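Incident log, structure service

09:12 report received: a user says their structure output differs between two submissions of the same chain.
09:20 pulled the input from the user's history:
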Amino acid sequence: MNEFMLTCCSTADMPEEFFQSRNIAYVPFHFTMDGVTYPDDLGKSVPYDQFFDRIARGSMPTTSQVNVQEYLEFWEPFLKEGKDVLHISLSSGISGSFNSASIAAAELREKYPDRKMLVVDSLAASSGYGLFMDLLADRRDQGMNIDDLHSWAEENKLKVHHWFFSSDLTSYFRGGRISHAKMVVGSLLRICPVLNVNRAGELTPQKNIRTKRRAMEELVRRMEENADNGLQYDGKCYICQSAVQQDAREVTDMIEARFPHMKGKVVITWIGAVIGAHTGPGTIALFFTGKERME
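09:34 re-ran on a clean worker, output below:
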């Protein structure tokens, strides 16, 4: 069986140790903050606590995706070594990176006709994307070949659920998603917007909830409603957060108490710089597997 590489983008929002231990290669997006452009290198150039602190003090980072040339340079060494490549991209519902990856892959298939260069649109983001990569690495390590893993990815990607809320509306206002008046009123009323990722891989508002505690309870309720086997869920669960570690710990405690059969403990990670540039501080996101997402 020919060896192959499993690859993704930095926007899977997992720590460096994860990619190393799972033998997954990643290519970095980019972000610009206070006039300086950095690679999205998992918090090495700008540690995450500093990144979100700078946003809280007024910085407004912008982001850029991986371009075609960067994909070519990222993948070609693997193909030269005689390896095939299965790449999982950030959701096309929030980024054009899937299109760039597809263009680069087509070019490399022509140059290396004896190699397989496969690209999947994850329809996922942040640590939901990371959870999907973890599930794929499990199956690769169990001996699944590249073609079967590619098919499994396409058949199961909509079973990864993303539910999140923000207790800080500042970045929603700065990004033009709400007016200044709504930000002020929402902050006074302690409104926390709850969103998810739909079948098209797009961020979709679900409801506005008063108080952070109730928003946490709503995330747990959504997991009860959608997870495989409900309260008997025995899969993996990830949570990521943007400078609200205590809140993430509180949601984790709620979930581990409610779902005692999970595979291991809840994994808590940081929201990365590219996704975090849009969410800002104050966001908690929950990821698990379940029935296919509805619209």
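09:41 both user submissions now match this output. Likely a transient worker issue. Closing.
09:42 reviewer note: Residues 21 and 114 are 29 Å apart (CA to CA). The chain has two domains: 4-157, 159-289.
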